[in-house]
Amino acid sequence: METTIIDLTQKDALENSSCLSATDATTAILSKEMKPSEVLLECIANIERHEEKVGAWAFMDKERAYHKAVEFDKKSPGGPLFGIPFGIKDNIDTHDMPTEYGTSIYQANQPSRDASCVGGLRSANAIPLGKTICTEFAHRAPGKTANPWNINNTPGGSSSGSAAAVASGMVPIAIGTQTTGSVIRPAAYCGVIGYKPTYGDFNLSGVLANTPSFDTLGFFSKTLEDLVLIRRAVLDNSIPSLIEGNLKNISIGIVAKPYWDDLCDSNIDMIEQIERLLSKAGARIQKFDGGGAFNDLEQIGMNISGYEFARTLSHERRYFYNRLSPILRDGRMADGIKIDYSQYVLSIQAMEKSRLILDDAMCKFDFVICPSAASAAPLGLHETGSASFNMAWTWLHTPVVTLPIALDTQTGLPLGLQMVGKRHQDDKLLAHAGAVLKYLFK
Predict the structure, then answer these.
(1) Is-contact 154 142, C-beta < 8 A?
(2) Which of 189, 252, 291, 390 could form a disulfide with 377 if both were Cys (CB 3.0 to 4.6 A apart)?
(3) List of residues 6+ apart from 45 with CB closer than 8 A
(4) Could you report the per-residue pLDDT of 49-108, keeping only the tens digit for each?
(5) Which positions ≥6 away from 244 have C-beta within 8 Å?
(6) Which residues contact 163 (CB under 8 A, 6 or more apart)?
(7) C-alpha pair distances (Å), 58 with each of 51, 132, 198
């Protein structure tokens, strides 16, 4: 049976969960077809319908958000996200809501300031609705969130709540973070658009560190145009609108390794269909092997991640060791403690060489593609799935977007197409993603 190619940006994960995209809601507010309070009430209605089963939120302040929306009802619209509700991953500081980092160790912890990204969205007149569930210290031990497409399946991690909240119409946009695959994988599992920017482009002040060499903000949305609004809000107003483009003579690489053998049949079929369709559109398709950038990458990356993560949590390791989950305590933290400084430095140097190799290999391509995960969301809530198809791009600092464009033939759950661009060419990547969506679902 052939994988079903379908535009999931036009399909809600749950019945009665219709929610406007940030772009459409902004247009409706500007044209006075809707008030900010009406946009917010749609989100609250979906929360009341679905939160009990989905469990996307660690904290909500619906009353404060509603008062802010009513205040905006009386004002002239201003800012790229005027009146748009958003969710914030619970490893990102907020001055007026608790930030608990996915652990009971920091229950009711109240920061005194906003993270830079939250401040940017507030300055753009977006309205924070609450904090979304993340895994313990944005690592692997899952929280309470279930996948809106099937609550028996994982939503992914570590940005599980942000992905599920957007997928179930509780907010049109949400912030996450990625150190390995924590935005792209849950976006793919939950059938929404996920975007991991080029490393370093977005300020991480006020975001709990995991592995500083890899940590990157990320965002979930219903449309690519929403990501443009987010980029303008958090970066600046020079961010261009999506360019109306086509795929003729565009050079696209299909990533054949590593981990290709781990793919489910539906993902293989999806990539084969996409290859045929994009070739028909006039794109030039070639296999992409990274030119050697992937050689020994997993071990190099794990050395760096383990060394940094163990030291990020030095305080918790000393004072709360027995309250850390076994998967954190006995996994990456234990491995990282065994790595000495000389190994770490050699790994840092090797990783930067790999980035330069990838930069050279990418020169011949406009973008490369591969599945966003090895399969659709696995059954069970005890783990968050494999990041094998995400780690290389995170560690090599490239921008990535995942598009929800297919359904798995066996489970009916979403599959994502992962598009990877050149470093600091995020706007071009999003424009190419727009061209892909336009052609596939014209």
Answers:
(1) yes
(2) 189
(3) none
(4) 999 999 999 999 999 999 999 999 999 999 999 999 999 999 999 999 999 999 999 999
(5) 434
(6) 155, 156, 174, 176, 183, 186, 187, 189, 190, 192, 194, 220
(7) 11, 5, 28
Which residue from 399, 412, 402, 400 is spatially nearest to 373, judged by alpha carbons?
Answer: 402
* Residue 64 CA from chain centroid, whole number: 26
Alpha helix (H) residue ranges in 55-129: 62-73, 116-123
**Displacement of CA 23 from its chain's centroid (Å):** 18
What residues are labeled active site? 89, 158, 182
Instruction: Choose among 128, 129, 156, 163: nearest CA to 142.
Output: 156
283 alpha carbon, distance to own chain's centre: 27
Structure token digits, residue 442: 């014209």
Close Cβ partners of 363 (under 8 Å, ≥ 6 residues apart): none
What angle separates helix 22-30 from helix 36-54, to the nearest 10 degrees? 150
pLDDT attached to residue 289: 95
Tens-place pLDDT, residues 188-205: 999 999 999 999 999 999
Helix axes 297-312, 341-362, angle to 10 degrees: 130
For residue 393, which amino acid is it? W
What is the total residue count of the chain? 442
Task: Output the six-digit token pair for 385.
Answer: 């799935």
pLDDT at site 258: 79
Tokens representing 309?
């993560």
Radius of gyration in angstroms for the set of CA atoms belonging to the chain, rounded to a whole number? 20
Residue 297: its pLDDT value, please?
Answer: 97
Stretches in the chain below the pLDDT threshold 50:
none
CA distance 133 to 103: 10
